[in-house]
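Next up, a specimen:

>
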Amino acid sequence: NALGDGAAGMNRWAFTGAKRPHTHDVRALAMARAPPSEGSGVGGGGGGGIQGGHGGSAILLSGGNDAQLLAYPAASFRKRHPVRVVSVPQRTPLAMTGG
């Protein structure tokens, strides 16, 4: 989708909104395709993840000085909040016994 240099309205930046999910500077951005999954999406749980259950969706990853890795759905970046990517999955500190 190449735009000509003189395209109407395409020669200046426009402020459309603000998000500040990182507490400090963002040091890296990357685009990737989410791996196909069985409806879990990034973040787990039946379809509530970053891609809403549609494998192969484009995602934007951001990393910053705050040591957080965040994933955003590229198609709905302005509408959805990021999902924090956990490098080492944590177990829930809760256990139940039969009784």
Summary: The chain has no helices and four strands. Strands lie at 26-33, 58-64, 69-73, 83-84. Confidence is low (pLDDT under 50) at residues 39-49.
